[in-house]
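Hi again,

Forgot to attach this to my earlier email, sorry! This is the prediction with manganese (II) ion bound. I've pasted everything inline since the attachment limit keeps bouncing my files.
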Amino acid sequence: MKKNKSLAAYRARRNFTKTHEPKGRTQKTSKVPVFVIQKHAASHLHFDVRLEINKVLVSWAVPKGPSTDPRVKRLAVLTEPHPLQYARFEGVIPPGQYGAGTVMVWDRGTFKNIKMKDGKKVSLKNCFRNGQIEVELKGRRLRGGYVLLQFKKEKNQWLLKKIDDQCADKKMNVVTRYTTSAITGRTMQEIAQEAKAHQ
Ligand code: MN
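Structure tokens for the complex follow:
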């Protein structure tokens, strides 16, 4: 097992004797890239959108969460890359620790890179570098095309937007429609209570 250097910022912020979040020492790559969206009740409630790129989960904090309406642009702030194992993390980050609060796996699945330029596919790595990501999500709740676009000046600020395709839905509020975990069916409150019971 090797240490993954791109996870240095992730590790530096966490005390693994106190938090149950994964250390992420392994570099296993999935055959098909995975994504996860975690609902995170930290000091401010937000959604963390994470896409597998280059053996890590490249991560954005999206204060308002994703939308299925292609007219809606959501601010997505780039944060530190997380280990692939984080896609399975659901629980409570203890008080006083970085990101303290309840974490729910709100959606999870695989995705396909659909970014093309001059008739050719652009690699995910280059899409990320260029600040123009286009993916087709195959989650339980989010499906179809989404774009992530980097701001020109504020490099850590991106926009998340639904592509207008068959999966687009202008009427649904996907964030209020689904309030339980995609993997355990638990509410935020249930995740918090069960973590307390196991302390
Ligand atoms: Mn977060």
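The longest strand covers residues 101-113. The pocket of manganese (II) ion is lined by residues 40, 42, 46, 48, 61, 99 (CB under 6 Å).

That should be everything now.

G.
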